[in-house]
Amino acid sequence: MAHIDLPEGLPGIVGPMTAYPESGAALNGLAEVLLRGPSPLTPAERELIATYVSRRNECVFCANTHAAVARVHYGDACGLVDQVLERGTDAPLGEKMRALLVIADRVRQDGRSVSEADVARARAAGADDRTIHDTVLVAAAFCMFNRYVDGLGTWAPAEPAVYAQIGEMLAGTGYARALSPSADDPERRP
Amino acid sequence: MAHIDLPEGLPGIVGPMTAYPESGAALNGLAEVLLRGPSPLTPAERELIATYVSRRNECVFCANTHAAVARVHYGDACGLVDQVLERGTDAPLGEKMRALLVIADRVRQDGRSVSEADVARARAAGADDRTIHDTVLVAAAFCMFNRYVDGLGTWAPAEPAVYAQIGEMLAGTGYARALSPSADDPERRP
Fold first, then answer.
1. How near does any CA of chain B get to the CA of A188, in Å?
2. How far lies B16's CA from each of A108, A126, A130, B4, B24, in Å?
3. Tens digits of per-residue pLDDT, B75-129?
4. CB < 8 Å to A20, chain B
5. What is residue B180's predicted lDDT score, i.e. its pLDDT?
6. Are the Cβ atoms of A23 and B34 closer than 8 angstroms?
7. What totals of helices (H) and strands (E) does chain A contain, helices first?
């Protein structure tokens, strides 16, 4: 059970974002910029970073949700997302994405652990300043989202079909409007 | 030296927020809602939570900056903020703030480590649902801000006077407009 009273039946972050719509809107606005806004990284690549960080933080709701979004963006016939969930950087990734996931995991552990060698490896594989910036910020942001979801003890559905449905929705419409229907609901919590 | 090219002379998070103004605006929007928006916690109390989490994450720029903001909000004649920086929850806090800092540190370590007993202790000291929600989200958010600042290897000034000046500015005008002057600067980075 969650640590605070939340609307029934809403999974993971959707509960507190609906109950507290001001911070919910700010969080969705940030997610939209980070995961869908202009970047040298594709939305698929950014969702994969989000998935990897959430998996390493063992945040079930976020890992399953962003894996589902990443699968839609990748048109994931080869099962890459599942391999990253299971094998992390041993998955069959290109060298740039592998180097970026290494940086993301350093950020996850402690920002100060990102080394010059980590950054040099990513640059050698084609990452520019903005790619490195966006990787660090996406990884950092999921250290927030994961803690928000788990620190409140929210509910993570067990059924893969639930995440597949959320993944289709988020990959299609993005984050900025993800909560609009409930935000317009006069019965929503204050 | 920072891991990416950043505008010279801008301390900590100000560098990447200026260089990447789209995410900078989303981050400042979130900070404004979390630290200055409606909440049962005063801005002083929320800045103290931000300070404590940043200190525990050993993020020098964020800890010094938000300590400076908290000092202004508290009108800190008794040195409470410095005691929290030095002694954490052994500082002379009221029971509610002590219980909230305990929750914030659990969130910092791993959201899943927040226990029912932690929440019950905060409730017994007067914390309601929204107080607990806001504490968890502020703590989670500073796990992001700290990692963004340190994961990019940004510069943290050594001089207390720099933080005092930033503290006065942020306590006065808030976060939403903190970057406006540079955002209007035609020479800003793309």
1. 15
2. 18, 21, 10, 9, 7
3. 977 799 999 999 999 999 999 999 999 999 999 999 999 999 999 999 999 999 9
4. 130, 133, 137
5. 58
6. yes
7. 10, 0
